[in-house]
Every structure is written in C-alpha cells, then in structure tokens.
C-alpha cells in the first residue's frame, strides 16, 4: 500500500491469464439462455442525420430539417437550400426561424396530413404555393416530413429536394 | 390491444466539442429527431424536436404499438460529420431497458478501465411481463456483447463500430436488475499480449420482432479497455552502480500509460521496498492525455539535489492511476562521495 492505495509491480501476461482463468471459473455457474441468429446490431442501422436532412442556409446561419419537410421553394431561394457556406453557424430550427422570419414561413399540419393519410386542403396548398416565402411543414412547431397522399405514395414526389 | 401513451423526452446538454480542421474551428450542434416506426422509406415520418439543451417535453404524437425512435445526433459545423450519440425506441410493445457499465475509474465521463481491472454490466429490464401476453418474442430481449480492438497506439477515434466482433449473444427475460462482472475480452489483445489489450466492449439490448413492432435497439453501453503500462529507467547500471561524483543523466521511458494517469520518478534511501513515498525527481512528473493511453520519454540531466547523503538508494519509475500505484521499473545504487586523501609526511633535513 502507498498512502492507502495498492502498490504493485507491472503485471505479466501469465499473471493476467491466470487471474482471468479464475474469474471465468467463478462465472461458469451463471445461468443464461444462449441465442443464435443474425446480429441485429449490423442491420437496421440508424442513418446519418445529414443523409436524412435538407440544409437551409442564409446570412451566416444554417439549420437542418427533415427531408421532405420543405414544401415550397420560391425560385429565388434555391441557392439557400443544400448550399452550406463554410463558416456558417449551425443552429437549431427555432433559432434559425426566429432570425429568418422575413423569408421563411411555416405551415402547421395535422399528423394525418403529414403522413399522407389525409389530403392537405387545396386552399391551404394554394396559399403557400403562391406566396413568396420558403415554406416548411411543421407539426407542433417542429419541421416534419410530408408524405404524398396514400394514393400517390408509390415513389418519391417531385417536392423532394436533393 | 392498442395502448397509446405519451413519452417524455429528455435532452442532455453536452459540452460541444471544438476541433480544428485545417486551421478552421469546428463546433458541434445537437439535434433530436423523432421517427415513426415502422419506417417506410422514403416516406418515413420524421420530425425535428425542438428542445432546450437541458429539458424535457412530451412526445410529438401519441406513441402506439408500432412505436417511435428518439435520436440524439451531434453534427459538425462544416457538415462533414454526424454522430448518433444515443437513441431510444419506445412503444407499447417495447420493454424499457437500460445498460449501465460500472468501473473503478471515477474520473471519466466515458466508462473505461484497465485490462487487469474487471467491470460490471448492470442490465435493467421493465415491462416484459406486461406485454408478453404469452408470446416468447415479447417475453425476452436479445443481449449482445461485442469487442473491438483499437490497434497499436489507437483509440476509439480509429475504429468503425460496424466492424466489431460479436463475442456472445443471449436472451434475457427477467424483470428488474441483473449485474454481471466481466473481465476484459482477450479479443482486444495486441500482438498476442493480453496485458497490452486496447479497445472497447459494447453491450446492447435489442427487442425481438413482435406484432407490429420491428426489431429495435433498446439500450447500449460501451466501456473502453486500456493496456497495462511498462517503463524503463536507463543511464544507471542495474548491477551495483556506485555514484562517486555528480549524478549521471537518466532517461525515463514509459509506454501505454492509463488515460489521465501521472508518471514520475522518485528516490528514497535504502533498498527497494513497496509503498514508499520518496522524493520526486524534479522534471520527472507528468500527466498525459485524458482520453487515450499515452507514452512518456524524458531525459533528466541533473538530479543531485534529491540525494542528501551517502549510502544505498533506490530510484523508482511509478505511475499513479485511479486504481493503484504501479512500479514500472527501479534501480538500486550506492552513493559514495567521501573524499579520501592519501599521503605521507616527510621531512627534509
């Protein structure tokens, strides 16, 4: 001991192997149900957030939103999508929206509308498609992916950004 | 059976790491996503969750039997790096699972230990009985144990977790807590030397496919395993050296020192004894990397000041770790600085 702490020399491989052998003997009576089959950790991996996001950038700030949540991009704003500039500050959605209210709008959808189980009312669609702002679909203030109506959901719609 | 419930999510404020890439400062920002299960690419419903760095809020939607996954990501400011820090699946047909790794190193945020020090894996399971309803699938979860070596001089930054080796898998079906003590896996041995193991072991719990709820990761935890250090003192013969004049230059070398540990050389009067607190040789004390095992090399020219008198002395190179004090090398020598004058007295008539 040294000031109450264990003091020892460097352990050798042989000593360590012997120590582990004794520990294994103590554990051999542990009851468990061995399993076989596919290693679930190798499948169904969570994809990178960047692969699943669109990037909105302007005036030194950038944020990420789920792909397919940007439902209207006016022609003049294409350069602000997926065009991140070096040195821009990466911020959360609410901060980015607060700084960019002038050109970014949100439209609150129901969960069923976002999932494509209910159609978005035509007058609501028209209102944001004719406006001059970029429009992001949100559910309870959080940007949400918008699936096309179930009848059209065989392949990605044209609104998906690269 | 259809049970909807609201879950509460909790975000932890992590200290955003700051790195420099080609002179540019890179910071990391955290994002939380809630994903509806089962996934339905490319139309999987996914929502960005707005939450303060520390706080909680209700799930965006009632989570039913198919469940939802909450993910905590951190993304670099240059958008080149995205890391999944944690994820949790919740749903009526998912039990609650937690894995906690307990080590004897109290100083580290990341669980870590040394190759000779066992660690505990604590598994908590709750809710299996409620959702079992006579199904074997729901009555159990699958428990995986993976190991992955870092390679010579490596750390967790040098590996792709997808390449880990599956050590074992088993089914667990209890309610409550189970604690199992593990000794580090020999799969982490470097060049056949088990004391030089360097890598990590990961323990994960996955649900079994049941009803509408797909297989999902319920919990995961990782422990880092670091090697035993070694070291040498050179510059003084280990075969009965005698110092008659000034002390000779010495070189201290140590390899694989435990993260955050301290290394130093000390001297004390007498032959080698265990547990002695000696006088530290000025310039020999050093604390290295706190995140990975590290090496040390130092030459000390003058250390006369710590030798106070003639006699037998011992010098030790030691490392002070969270677990113990380890003598890496030592040398015992004699100091004889007596001035002898031999002469005679003669007279001349």
Primary descriptors:
heterodimer; A: 162 residues; alpha/beta; four-stranded mixed β-sheet; 4 helices; elongated; B: 349 residues; mainly beta; six-stranded mixed β-sheet; five-stranded antiparallel β-sheet; 24 strands
Could you please describe the fold and organization of this structure?
The complex is a heterodimer of chains A (162) and B (349). With 162 residues, chain A is α/β, with parallel strands linked by helices. Chain A has four helices and nine strands, in the order E-H-E-E-E-E-E-H-E-H-H-E-E. In chain A, strands 5, 7, 8 and 9 form a four-stranded mixed β-sheet that branches. With 349 residues, chain B is mainly β. Chain B is built from two helices and 24 strands. In chain B, the strands form six sheets. In chain B, strands 17, 19, 20, 21, 23 and 24 form a six-stranded mixed β-sheet that branches. In chain B, strands 2, 3, 4, 6 and 7 form a five-stranded antiparallel β-sheet that branches. In chain B, strands 9-15-14-11-12 form a five-stranded mixed β-sheet. Chain B is elongated. Chains A and B meet through strand 1, helix 1, strand 2, strand 4 and strand 6 of A and strand 3, strand 4, strand 6, strand 7 and strand 11 of B. Strand 1 of chain A pairs parallel with strand 24 of chain B, so a sheet runs across the interface.
Short overview:
Chain A has helices at 13-27, 93-99, 111-114, 122-130; strands spanning 7-9, 33-34, 53-58, 61-66, 70-72, 89-90, 104-108, 134-139, 142-143. Chain A is an alpha/beta fold and 162 residues long.
Instruction: Tell me what portion of residues of chain A adopts beta-strand conformation.
Output: 15-25%
Q: Considering residues with a beta carbon less than 8 A from a beta carbon on another chain, report the largest interface and each chain's count.
A: A-B, 72 and 75 residues
The averaged pLDDT of chain A comes out at 88
Q: What is the alpha-carbon Rg of chain A in Å?
A: 27 Å
Helix content of chain B: under 10%
Number of strands of chain A: 9
Tell me, briefly, the overall form of chain A: elongated
């Amino acid at each position: 001991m040294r000031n109450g702490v264990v003091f020892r020399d460097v352990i050798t491989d042989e000593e360590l192997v012997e120590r582990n052998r004794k520990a294994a003997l103590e554990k051999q009576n542990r009851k468990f149900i061995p399993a076989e089959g596919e290693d679930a950790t190798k499948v169904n991996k969570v994809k990178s957030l960047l692969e699943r996001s669109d990037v909105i950038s302007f005036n030194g700030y950038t944020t990420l939103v789920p792909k397919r949540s940007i439902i209207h991009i006016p022609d003049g704003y294409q350069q602000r999508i997926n065009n991140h500039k070096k040195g821009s500050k990466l911020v959360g959605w609410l901060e980015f929206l607060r700084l960019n209210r002038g050109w970014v709008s949100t439209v609150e959808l129901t969960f069923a509308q976002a999932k494509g189980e209910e159609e978005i009312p035509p007058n609501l669609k028209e209102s944001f498609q004719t406006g001059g702002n970029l429009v992001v679909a949100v559910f309870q203030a959080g940007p949400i992916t918008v699936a096309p109506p179930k009848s059209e959901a065989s392949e990605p719609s044209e609104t998906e950004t690269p | 059976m259809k049970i909807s419930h609201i879950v509460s999510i909790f975000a932890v404020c992590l200290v955003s790491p700051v790195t420099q890439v080609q002179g540019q400062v890179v910071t990391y920002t955290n994002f939380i996503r809630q994903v509806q299960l089962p996934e339905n690419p490319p139309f999987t419903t996914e929502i960005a969750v707005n939450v303060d760095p520390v706080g909680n809020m209700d799930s965006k939607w009632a989570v039913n039997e198919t469940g939802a996954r909450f993910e905590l990501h951190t993304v670099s400011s240059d958008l080149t790096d995205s890391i999944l820090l944690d994820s949790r699946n919740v749903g009526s047909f998912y039990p609650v699972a937690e894995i906690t790794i307990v080590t004897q190193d109290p100083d580290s945020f990341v669980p870590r230990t040394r190759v000779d020090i066992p660690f505990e894996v604590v598994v908590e399971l709750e809710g299996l009985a409620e959702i079992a309803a006579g199904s074997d699938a729901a009555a159990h979860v699958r428990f995986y144990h993976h190991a992955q070596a870092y390679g010579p001089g490596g750390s967790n930054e040098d590996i792709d977790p997808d390449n880990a080796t599956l050590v074992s898998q088993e089914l667990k079906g209890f309610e409550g807590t189970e604690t199992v003590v593990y000794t580090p896996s020999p799969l982490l041995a470097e060049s056949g030397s088990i004391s030089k193991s360097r890598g990590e072991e990961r323990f994960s719990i996955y649900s079994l496919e049941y009803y509408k709820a797909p297989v999902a990761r319920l919990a995961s935890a990782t422990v880092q395993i670091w090697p035993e250090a070694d070291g040498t003192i050179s510059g003084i013969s280990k075969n009965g050296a005698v110092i008659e004049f000034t002390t000779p230059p010495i070189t201290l070398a140590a390899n694989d020192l435990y993260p955050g540990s301290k290394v130093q050389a000390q001297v004390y009067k007498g032959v080698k004894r265990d547990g002695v607190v000696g006088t530290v040789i000025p310039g020999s004390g050093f604390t290295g990397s706190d995140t990975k095992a590290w090496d040390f090399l130092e030459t000390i020219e003058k250390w006369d000041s710590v030798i106070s008198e003639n006699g037998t002395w011992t010098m030790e190179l030691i490392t002070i770790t969270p677990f113990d004090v380890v003598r890496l090398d030592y040398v015992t020598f004699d100091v004889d600085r007596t001035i002898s004058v031999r002469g005679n007295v003669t007279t001349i008539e």
